[in-house]
């Protein structure tokens, strides 16, 4: 267990090295936050209480989206490039001989990365957003840890999806296509572009059932106090259920994939 | 060299360098096209992906319009015109110069040095590097939305308004192109700040997809007078639609995009030269 702690700390430190890139990312998140906030204001001006959110809740949703974009890696950008490269070049054979579990190893590193991005790219845009707009911040102190737990579960779900995508490189060689599809789904079905509550009819029902809603929609609803009591338990169960199912699927695919690995002596 | 011949010689040299640059750009692009087409299935998939990812932007607007009839006082076809213009212009710039944002990585890993020693303009090499034909997906999507807007809008067409459409797309692409070059020049200084560029390019095109009425005055001022993105689509499109301009600008402002594009390229060119001159290799 200590080993994975060290790996997670390494993931955190590694991303913390890129200070200018982080500052640049904060700038971009803030610009997008402003643009989206104004479009949401126009929308909620026409239809107050759309999707069950009032104006300041809708604006809070925008800035939560910017804060969690990198944390939950909705557009990718975590470990998957590197893992795919190792599969393609065959370096993965070395990893398989290490006395550590492959999936847990990458999960630990990704949790470290997510923690850094939450602090490095989440807090500043959120603070700037709250200075420029009237945001609905939690009324109760308990909402903060409840929100963080939901974010943690969201990161694990995100990791589990991306791990499956990365493993597809064992069969596809060039996993760029699979990664792009996952990236698209993550962006659209997480609720990043528009809250899933606003998706009409069947599309909305399906979107809210898919794993990606764990990445933004569920944590945002926890933050906004839409999920309390049993509703909160249900939200956790939804996220944890997807996390478990996808991690198990990843483990299964990993076993299948490693059977394909032929190590050339030399 | 104070003689007038000297001056004309310099002008001639500048010109031949431009021709040489365009030629080199073409050759490198052709090379990347050949390599892309070696994996046709992968190309088809990524082009489709590029189409879909940009289409999601418009799907978002469609989803918004499933709840409202107008956004900021604009109907769906009117917003589709703004969207189609901005997306097509940006798509063109992204196709031709979208690889410029890799410059920071080249500075960091030292591969820029390889480009410096080749007898070909560096700008042409950086711009053509990894030319991605899949970006046609974005242009296709922009053109489709633009087509929808032109079909469903009820506009009293005049020759000037008709001329405005292609003029707007080309100057808009040039303005975005200048932003790409200026952004790359900035990366000579701030090596891993390519995301700042995204704020102006991707952020800019997202902003232009919505009517100016929904944004705060200061933001509109910023994208009109500081980074003149308003000339890409807002002003010319509002002329076509017969709508009121933001900031009470005069009517002829809609005809400025080619001038603004020229000015942007002059500034971007200066920035690029300054950046290249200031470049110090990492030595790796």
TrEMBL record, chain A:
Transmembrane segments: 20-41, 61-79, 147-172, 181-203
Signal peptide: none
Record's keyword annotation contains Transcription: no
Entries under Pfam families matching the protein: ABC2_membrane_6
Keywords of this entry: Membrane, Transmembrane, Transmembrane helix
Name of the protein in its database record: ABC transporter permease
Taxonomic source organism: Streptomyces finlayi
UniProtKB/TrEMBL annotation, chain B:
Keywords for the protein's UniProt record, in alphabetical order: Membrane, Transmembrane, Transmembrane helix
Protein known as: Transporter
Chain ranges passing through the membrane: 41-68, 80-98, 139-157, 163-186, 219-240, 252-272
Source superkingdom: Bacteria
UniProt cross-references to InterPro entries, sorted A to Z: ABC-2_transporter-like
Signal peptide: none
Protein's organism: Streptomyces finlayi
């Amino acid at each position: 267990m200590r080993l994975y702690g060290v790996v997670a700390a390494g993931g955190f430190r590694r991303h913390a090295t890129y200070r200018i890139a982080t500052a640049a990312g904060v700038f971009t998140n803030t610009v997008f936050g402003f643009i989206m906030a104004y479009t949401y204001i126009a929308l909620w001006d026409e239809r107050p209480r759309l999707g069950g959110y009032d104006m300041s809740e809708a604006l809070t949703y925008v800035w939560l989206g910017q804060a969690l974009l990198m944390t939950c890696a909705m557009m990718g950008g975590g470990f998957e490039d590197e893992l795919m490269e190792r599969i393609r070049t065959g370096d993965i054979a070395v990893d398989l001989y290490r006395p550590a579990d492959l999936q847990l190893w990458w999960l630990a590193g990704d949790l470290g990365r997510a923690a850094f991005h939450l602090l490095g790219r989440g807090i500043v845009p959120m603070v700037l957003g709250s200075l420029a707009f009237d945001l609905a911040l939690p009324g109760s102190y308990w909402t903060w840890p409840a929100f963080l737990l939901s974010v943690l579960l969201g990161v694990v779900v995100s990791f589990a999806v991306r791990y499956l995508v990365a493993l597809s490189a064992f069969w596809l060689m060039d996993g760029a296509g699979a990664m792009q599809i996952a990236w698209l789904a993550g962006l659209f079905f997480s609720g990043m572009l528009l809250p899933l509550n606003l998706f009409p009819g069947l599309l909305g029902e399906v979107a809210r059932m898919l794993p990606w809603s764990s990445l933004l929609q569920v944590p945002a609803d926890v933050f906004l106090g839409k999920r309390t009591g049993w509703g909160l338990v249900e939200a956790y169960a939804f996220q944890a259920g997807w996390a478990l199912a996808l991690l198990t699927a990843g483990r299964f695919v990993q076993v299948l994939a490693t059977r394909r690995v032929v190590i050339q002596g030399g | 060299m104070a003689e007038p011949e000297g001056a004309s010689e310099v002008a001639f040299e500048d010109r031949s360098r431009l021709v040489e640059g365009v030629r080199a750009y073409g050759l490198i692009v052709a090379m990347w096209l050949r390599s892309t087409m070696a994996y046709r299935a992968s190309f088809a998939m990524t082009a489709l992906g590029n189409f879909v990812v940009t289409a999601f932007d418009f799907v978002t607007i469609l989803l918004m319009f499933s709840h409202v009839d107008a956004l900021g006082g604009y109907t769906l076809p009117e917003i589709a015109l703004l969207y189609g213009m901005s997306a097509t212009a940006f798509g063109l710039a992204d196709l031709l110069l979208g690889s410029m944002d890799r410059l920071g990585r080249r500075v960091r890993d030292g591969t820029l040095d390889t480009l410096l020693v080749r007898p070909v303009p560096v700008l042409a090499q950086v711009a053509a590097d990894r030319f991605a034909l899949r970006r046609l997906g974005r242009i296709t999507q922009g053109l489709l939305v633009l087509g929808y807007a032109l079909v469903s809008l009820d506009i009293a067409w005049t020759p000037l308004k008709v001329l405005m459409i292609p003029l707007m797309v080309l100057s808009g692409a040039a303005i975005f192109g200048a932003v790409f070059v200026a952004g790359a020049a900035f990366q000579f200084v701030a090596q891993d700040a390519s995301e700042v560029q995204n704020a102006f390019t991707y952020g800019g095109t997202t902003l232009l997809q919505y009517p100016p009425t929904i944004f705060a005055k200061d933001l509109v001022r910023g994208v009109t007078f500081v980074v003149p993105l308003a000339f890409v689509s807002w002003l010319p499109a509002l002329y076509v639609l017969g709508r009121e301009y933001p900031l009470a600008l005069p009517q002829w402002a809609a005809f400025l995009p080619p001038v603004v594009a020229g000015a942007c390229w002059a500034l971007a060119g200066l920035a690029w030269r300054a950046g290249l001159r200031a470049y110090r290799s990492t030595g790796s």
